[in-house]
Amino acid sequence: MFIFTKGTSKLPVLLVAMLTLVALSVACSGETVIQTVIVEKEVIVEKKVKGDTVVHTVVVAATAIPVPTAAPTPVGGPRGTFRYAATRVIPPLFVPALGGVGHEQDYASYGMVEFLMYADHGTENYNPEKSIAISWDLADDRSKVRFTLRKGIPFHKGWGELTAADVAWSMNSAIRDGSTFWGAGGLQQWMDRWEVVDDYTVDLFFIDYNSNWQFLLSNLATHQPWIYPKKAVDELGEDRANVTPLGTGPFENVLYRTDDMVVVEAFNGGDHWRAKPGVERIEVLQIPEPLVRNAAFKVGEVDIIEVLNKDIGQLAADVPGSYEQAARGTGWPHVIYYTGNYWGDAVCDADPDTSWKIGAEYPRPGFKPDSDHPWIGDPSGGGNSMESALKVRQAMNMAIDRDAILDSVFGGLGESTAAYNGFLPSDDEWNDAWNVEFDLPAAKALLADAGYPNGFEFEFYFPPDHIVMNVEAGAAIGQMWRELGLDVKIDNAAYATARPRHFKGVDDIIWYAHSGTGKLDKQKGGAYGPSNTFHGAELPCDMQALYWANATEVDKDQRIQNNIEMQNYISEWSLQLPFASITDYWMVGPNIKAWSPHKIAGRYFTNPETVQVK
């Protein structure tokens, strides 16, 4: 018998946990009941296994990435249930200002909340017929946008109809002082305030005009605020409303247990203004371990799973009628960051008056150009020389066999790359000078030339529970550096635990994360100083100015050229190593008739309303 739980895949374990159960039984008065209960959970999947043998690696030949098409509109009302296996069920944090766990997009993934604007499937054509905003008008002076809202959109659980007050409150909550909303840092750079004009008209005022505002408010982005009922906040208070899942989406929450399970059901019998759900009920189960998710999928306990690309071929063979589903669009660049190279020393001329740098600590706490951090260079010449630190970073880059990682870890389903700003070798804009060739002997010679013939010890961080980063890739990279002669100390702390240190120049380690995907003309490099130092470096002001220029530049070709110039600088100084661009995949079981996701920045489940069961 094969038993899976949240914490193990080897032994039968009865999990007894204190879990927050948000029981959303609502009386006619609209009162929401929140309970804390003791839950005993034993989930069993029967699977015959010979001994303890588990095949960990399946190498799959690279294949063309299939392009998903829109799922057919379901005939009749919603029907049936499907079960989705997720890496994690995050806490319910529905008041934007009180969020910050790092994956709040999940609330939209499960159909509970909606955004202001929606694009037609597979395009960036923002469609007023599918959006909460039925029209939007940019002022001639580009100081504001006026949105006209759709009438008659109901909130879940009887909390009234959506109005401009709800939109303004939700957006202003995300950007207010002290907000921990996961996208606050970026939004606060360009979004000044939202003001109610009348019940169905609301104005967005810019700090500085952002040419990408439509994308940033739409379902194609992440880190954008959803619309939450202000009435619930007024009546329940912020703290209680925060743990009360409410929205206007096609699915309504009926059960929410952090780190365990979420259940949603078709709202209003499936009669939703925007999207007619194909199923009556969705059950989301937290199963962190890939091998356990695979086992559950094989025996039909779950219908759709997050899957490691290398496992796709074996699962397709083991489960007749199953198939892999790729998200539409380009993949995620997986990146190694050499943090601590904070070379900015003041607020830049291009920074807005609200810059996060005002009053910030200089030099940054993580700026330690010493013998314990040989990859960190000191432009002033007081610490590690810029030349020596560059050679260290170059040597570490050259020691990474990107093709081997792509084939063995990701099953060949992706593309080897070396550009932080999202450029791929298949793009016309690609510059061969950005490429880094694997050459271990040359890497060892370069490391010795930098003054470290016997290597050095350092901390390498990669989280075990992030939706993008791959633990096996992190382990492979660590081993390749050991072959270079380095003493690698692995840190596998949970992502939510480590996330706060990535801001404000605190990091002084080497870590594996990701960068932005797609849209080569969008603002790039915000995490290299303009918005924060999440990626562990702070570029000189002339490079940061390119980020701000792309916020207002109307010429798309010029925006792309600005990003090329920034990429040239980042590559010249080897501030990181993007080693693969990976498209997100799910395995879909034979019980699923149709599902049509769209690509956003991350392995987020999208378009749950398009799922239909057989």
Commentary on this structure:
This protein is α+β, with helices and mostly antiparallel strands. The chain has 2 domains: 279 residues, D-Maltodextrin-Binding Protein, domain 2 (3-Layer(aba) Sandwich); 251 residues, Dipeptide-binding Protein, Domain 3 (Dipeptide-binding Protein, domain 3, Roll), CATH 3.10.105.10. 21% of the residues lie in helices and 19% in strands. It has 15 helices and 24 strands. It has a 7-stranded mixed β-sheet with strand order 10-11-12-5-13-22-14, covered by helices on one side. Helix 12 links the parallel strand 17 and strand 18. The radius of gyration is 24 Å and the shape is globular. It starts with a strand and ends with a strand. The N terminus is likely disordered.
Please supply descriptive tags for the structure shown above.
about 625 residues; alpha+beta; D-Maltodextrin-Binding Protein, domain 2; 2 domains; 5-stranded mixed sheet; 15 helices
Number of domains: 2
CATH topology of the largest domain: D-Maltodextrin-Binding Protein, domain 2
Look at the structure and give the CATH class of the largest domain.
Alpha Beta
| Strands ordered across the widest β-sheet | 10-11-12-5-13-22-14
| CATH architecture type of the largest domain | 3-Layer(aba) Sandwich
Mean pLDDT: 86
Under CATH, the homologous superfamily of the largest domain reads Periplasmic binding protein-like II
Summing up helix and strand content along with how strands pair, one would put the structural category as alpha+beta
The biggest beta sheet reads:
7 strands, mixed
Number of strands: 24
Radius of gyration of CA atoms, rounded to a whole number: 24 Å
- Report the uncertain regions: 1-69
| Termini gap | 28 Å
Relative helix content? 10-25%
Q: What is the molecular shape?
A: globular
